[in-house]
Amino acid sequence: MATTVVVGAGPNGLTAACVLARAGLSVTVVEAETTVGGAARSGPVLGAGTVVDLGAACHPFGAVSPAFEALGLGAHGLEWLRPEIAAAHPMEDGEPGLLLPDLDRTADGLGNDAAAWRRLHAGPRDSIDHIVADSLGPLMRWPNHPLTMAKFGLRAPWPVTWTSRAFRTERARALFTGSAAHATLPMTAPLTSAFAVMFNSLAAVNGWPVARGGTQAIVDALVADLTAHGGRIETGRRVSDVRELGDPDVLMLDLTPRQLLRLKGLDLSPSYRRRLNRWRYGTAVHKVDLLLDGPVPWYDQRVATAGTVHVGGALAEINRAERLAATGTLPDRPFVMATQPTVVDPSRAPEGKHILWAYAHVPYGYRGPAKNPNLAGDRVIEQIERFAPGLRERIVQRVDHSPADLQAMNANLVGGSIGGGSLAGLQQVFRPVPALNPYRTGAPGVYLCSSSTPPGGGVHGMGGHNAAMTALRELGLVR
């Protein structure tokens, strides 16, 4: 029986382990922390009776992931919950933009921009299965659905600042921009429109779900599938030299380039090491978890029913905030991503209480001033209170997580950068190096499966699935 060791028990590492175990390999997962899941864990951060996602919270890609579907995680207890509003974008001087799980209803809510919204999103909505299948793998390959991807490509290359000219109202521009900001880039960057169209189209088809009981439920389902197929997990074991792992037939690494380069015993070529050394980690986040004694007092009550809220105002303001964060300055009004999980999952907080999970985009490795290390968190609160006056009075408990705290929680979040590395420039396409198969490291039997490989960040397991399938093909176990 062929043997496998997987280093790192994030969702990609666990997915790879499941795929390999199902193929009949003997699989051991080695994890440095005492619990598995990486940035997909949940815990009682805000006290007894609370379930707070330590990292990822909302899963538009996880709910449509071919990897998760193939593993049948629902049989292991994973259940998706869909808020009635996928995302809301409050505006300071008017109605909020509302991203609904129905394209026509979203468009109709945008008034004069209804036709433009439909034109931009109807095609991708209708072809979302093909787009997802071709987007969640290496981009340097011939797609399975070339015509569909060609049509999608007509929308994809442009910066949001260009594409948004199709809209007449600031509300439609802001709603489009909020979805693009998941890329953690200035809105003048190429390909940011692709993120907006993809996220909005996913909302129209499947909503933006959360996992019942927290993101940890995804991890628990992966662990259950792995153990059901004979895999085992060792926690609290930090690997510094791969030679201590013996000589497995497959070594799968759920690590970003910085961790990979620090591992001893790897036979990596000098050229591969040089290219990994050029990897950039990009804009970071400062996270704030709030326990509230009631729902967030948004000025418009419809926002209170949204699973995700993009807090940043108009397009120009968001672009300015993203540009400042990307160039090393903490914005006075940062872009804030917020989720309200207790809107659809009240089990995550004691009765009558609500959880607000939020983060701001901040400079890579940002540290607040000594007199106020949580300055970025204060600005998160200020931003939200612009659109939810009275929020401060509802805060029962607040816990901040700086970029350094996030890296301490999960070593793959280098400098607080949450996507396995920046998506700026060619790193959107070449992850982590230019290669037809980016999961190979060049060392025999050694593969990279982290979010630094395609398709990038998010809890969808596709990096792990794609890397595992590469290994199985090279072992001659699949075609």
UniProtKB/TrEMBL annotation:
Protein name: NAD(P)/FAD-dependent oxidoreductase
Pfam families: NAD_binding_8
Originating species: Kocuria soli
Gene3D superfamilies xrefs: FAD/NAD(P)-binding domain
